[in-house]
Specification:
With 296 residues, this protein is α/β, with parallel strands linked by helices. The protein is 45% helix and 17% strand.
Amino acid sequence: MLKSFLLFLVLFFLNACSQSCVKLEHVIKKECDYYALRSAECLNTQSLIKRLEPYPVIFVGDHHSEANMHLKVAELITALANNGTKVLLANEWFYPSDKKVLNAFVRNDINESEFITKIQWAKRLKYYPYESFKPMYESVKQRGGELYGINISKSEQKQISDDNTSSMNQEIFSLYKALDTNVSAHQNLVMPFLSHCHAPKKEESLKECTQRMYKVQVAWDTKMARESANLARHLKKNEKLIVFAGSMHMEYHLGIPLRFARESNLPYLNIIPAATGTKSIPHGIGDFILFYQAKE
């Protein structure tokens, strides 16, 4: 009876809070290189490196159009390497099938121009120039790291979007059947960005279109989480896996981190980017904030 009453109280206050509680935010009063949300303090790069030591997996959110943000990530990779860490960088816009090309690029068996052509950069990331991301890849290459692809291919995305199970291979069919589209916190985070429904099917309602788009979003996160967990299983003592994808895939430990935690018991942290000068940061959005000078 007492347990039931206590459960009632917990549910009552949770429900009340969801309706009226003020969101907790961190007020940033000075410029920081990094900000630790758990301890509410500014950190420099070396202080951050020390905080990262116990964690073999680090999720880093990206603002795709911000070259200065990518420079900061390159500096972080360099600092980790200088501290004796081998960095494995798993990237959102590469696929597992790109492994041979990525390996050849890291080993300098192919040059930069050949890499850009073979990886089809202009087709995959037509709005984002390679030069913006180059410092990250060069930092990995020059310090003995590795590059990996973790995302689901465009054709596989379409199969899932269309519920075309007859065309799916066994791996994608298994992923499709396991998709969890019922995480309300994740829905609340992502759904507002899908409401435009840019490519509705014939006679498809707005609700049906957004649900289909959300299903593909969850498929992205699930695939990247599974591939990351597989890479993490083989990490050596001196290695760290950096999973680099759009910030929306990382925020509040939802998206990829949530699904990674279902596949792996390895400890991880996430780092979320923010423009220098940002005055407030929602509590819980990440473990650390990486500040960068946004382009004008």
